């Protein structure tokens, strides 16, 4: 009898929890405005499985923004959860990659990138492989980069690279992903592709982040070579001071998060934690000279 009462009590609590989650999503659906404090309260209050139960019906809601919000709450709860729940969150989010709305897919793929590679089990990797093989898929570059990070979809991407209908941008993404997985062929391909690109703002903004993503020494070494480049090839981002500056300053910000024991770190916005970039450049150049066998954070 006592066990029955306990079970009934737990069932009643879960119903109340689910009701609060449903009430919030229904209000959001009605007015289209997020309540940050309420979302934080829900994320902090409920266990992962309870939250997922309350959100299940909204993953297939007719309104795209509601589906996206449901996946967002799973992401916020799962990314800081214990290992088992992180893996469950990843698998739930990957279901969102099959959504019919490109905005939902893009947001979910961005969220998935915040999880560790170890959070992706065989089920998740199999789903990524299935997504890579889809004829029509939103945000193929994001998907390829995720696959490269977690070690999924190698054969699918190699097959896609042989398809003449695949755009050059997408082929670049597949090559980067395969380079991330350690393919010497694709590391060499990527290095050959950038060999003729001039050093300027575009290279720093669009190509260097891709090279850093691979976490391959040849590519990081190339980035480091730009740190030692004294030619002012980049235009200042300061509108009040229009002039050409060293590209090295921006490169410091891009390589800092992936090199172990790097003398400077970046904040949440990707800005180097320093008030003196000239000093930071001098210190970093010396550190890199003294540490040619630096370790890449994997």
Q: Count the strands?
A: 2
**Fraction of residues in helix:** 55-70%
Q: Which descriptor suits the 3D outline?
A: globular
Radius of gyration: 23 Å
Largest β sheet strand count, sense and barrel closure: 2 strands, antiparallel
Number of helices: 15
What integer is the average pLDDT? 93
Into which percentage range does the β-strand content fall? under 5%
Output the strand order for the largest sheet: 1-2
Which regions contain 5 or more consecutive residues with pLDDT less than 50? 5-13
Class from helix and strand fractions: mainly alpha
Q: What is the helix/strand order?
A: HHHHHHHHHHHHHEEHH
- Through-space gap between termini: 54 Å
Structure description:
The chain has 298 residues and is an all-alpha fold. The protein is built from 15 helices and two strands. Strands 1-2 form a two-stranded antiparallel sheet. It is globular and about 60 Å long. Residues 5-13 have low confidence and may be disordered.
């Amino acid at each position: 009898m006592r066990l029955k009462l306990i079970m009934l009590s737990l069932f009643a609590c879960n119903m109340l929890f689910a009701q609060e989650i449903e009430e919030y999503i229904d209000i959001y659906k009605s007015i289209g405005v997020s309540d940050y404090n309420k979302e934080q309260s829900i994320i902090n209050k409920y266990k992962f499985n309870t939250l997922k139960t309350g959100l299940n019906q909204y993953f297939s809601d007719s309104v795209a923004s509601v589906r996206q919000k449901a996946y967002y709450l799973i992401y916020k709860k799962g990314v800081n959860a214990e290992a088992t729940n992180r893996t469950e969150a990843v698998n739930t989010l990957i279901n969102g990659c099959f959504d019919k709305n490109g905005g939902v897919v893009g947001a979910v793929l961005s969220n998935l990138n915040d999880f560790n590679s170890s959070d992706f089990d065989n089920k998740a990797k199999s789903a990524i492989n299935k997504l890579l093989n889809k004829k029509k898929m939103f945000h193929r570059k994001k998907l390829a980069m995720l696959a490269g990070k977690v070690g999924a979809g190698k054969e699918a991407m190699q097959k896609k690279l042989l398809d003449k209908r695949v755009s050059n941008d997408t082929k670049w993404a597949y090559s980067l992903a395969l380079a991330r997985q350690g393919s010497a062929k694709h590391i060499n391909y990527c290095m050959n592709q950038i060999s003729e690109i001039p050093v300027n703002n575009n290279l720093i903004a669009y190509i260097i982040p891709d090279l850093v993503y691979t976490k391959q020494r040849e590519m990081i070494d190339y980035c480091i070579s730009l740190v030692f480049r004294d030619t002012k090839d980049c235009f200042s981002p300061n509108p009040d001071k229009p002039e050409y500056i060293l590209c090295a300053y921006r490169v410091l910000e891009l390589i800092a998060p992936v090199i172990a024991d790097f003398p400077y770190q970046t904040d949440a916005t990707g800005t180097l934690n320093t008030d003196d970039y000239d000093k930071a450049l001098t210190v970093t150049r010396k550190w890199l000279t003294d540490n040619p066998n630096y370790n890449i954070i994997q």
